[in-house]
Amino acid sequence: MKKYNVYETYKDGKEKLELKKLDDIALRSESNHNACIKVNTGNKFQKILGFGGALTESSSYALSKLDDDVRKKVLKSYYDKEEGIGYKFGRIHINSCDFSLENYTYVEENDLTLNTFTLERDEKYVLPLVREVKEISEGDLTILASPWSPPSYMKTNGEMNHGGKLKEECKQLWADYYVKYIEKMKEKDIDIWAVTVQNEPAAIQTWDSCEYTAEEERDFVKYYLGPTFHKNNLQDKKIIIWDHNRDIAYERAKVVLEDEEAAKYVYGTGLHWYVSEEFANVSKIHNEFPDKHLIFTEGCQEGGVHLGSWDTGERYGRNIIGDFNNYMEAWMDWNIALDETGGPNHVGNLCDSPVIIDTKEKNVIYNSSFYYIAHFSKFIKENAIRVESTVEGEKVYCLSCINEDNTICSVIMNESDDIKIVDLEIDGDKVSLQLKPHSIYTIKEVK
């Protein structure tokens, strides 16, 4: 049998990602198994683009409360190629989002020419964070930019919050706004890889939000955003639609992607995890539109900070496995760090984060979610290929990939209260393992 290292994290354990050798933890005697996992590297699926998180104004603000060396250590824990957990994506907001200190835009009110456009506000928090992460990642930072709301004067409700729609007469102006944003960022040596059309376009939120029906999103891409990118030589910038939950993702994507004139501008569909875990809907989009990409653009634990919660980590693990096993190609968490309240958030929509900053004591708390993400992101490298893994057993999950160096990597999770005896078979090689209750394991081939 090939040689494998095993990295173990479990609820009652003090160590996280504890390194062991598979030979040392394999069961020597025959035991009655209650789960079976079969990995077949001959059946290959999608390429994995990588993992990341959101570099919001709130994340930057919370991190700014730390001493420089402590802040840098947090960022390295995510983005450093050797010391970190393998992040390469960063999602940022165009204009403000709820995880900003207040509503803001880049233009003065009623500017119909965009002559007042400036990124000066983002220079306070967002851009210094982006630059620091870019430096830590040795320039290997892939940036997705998403708008939560156009400026208030471009909207039917006259404000950035509480939904509303983009005014018909402002659609070209708003498309030009994306171009201006990308060009101004480029002047600052920050490349934008992709944009989403609109964060959560089906929701009327108390914070920065803007509604689009599927048809409105299709037509905005088809008649405004796509052609405007091409006219300005930005056709290499990817356009991602939907950027919302899985529940009606297929129905929304279908309206846009079955229209050839709109679809030619679209790179793929962005998804969030709120409302449901209907992973089959992700596969449904892939099966009907296999040439389009699937990107997980946001997920977090709602309802403020949940310090010490193991359920949060398991939610991440379950969702990452479910998404990638249904053709997702990249996976981005929400805020990379928040303060002890789960903010700041300018409308009080407090959430949890893998990293919590105690701004009073100036220390850092790593939640279970950080370690669960790490079990995937640190070991499944960019350009890995997902391979077939089948599971029999309750509350046991598995994701398997082959990295570019041809090493096998399987992440196995036991979400139950019980020990699981698992028969693991990788390309015919068999071994029995004991999975502790509420545990996650990364099994990585050693060359």
UniProtKB/TrEMBL annotation:
Keywords annotated in UniProt: Glycosidase, Hydrolase, Signal
Protein known as: Glycosyl hydrolase
A GO molecular function annotation here is: glucosylceramidase activity
Q: Where is the Glycosyl hydrolase family 30 TIM-barrel domain?
A: 48-380
- Domain Glycosyl hydrolase family 30 beta sandwich residues, every copy: 384-443
Gene encoding this chain?
Answer: srfJ
Species of the source: Clostridium butyricum
**What Pfam families does the annotation carry?**
Glyco_hydro_30, Glyco_hydro_30C
Similarity remark: Belongs to the glycosyl hydrolase 30 family.
**Gene Ontology biological process terms from the UniProt entry:** glucosylceramide catabolic process
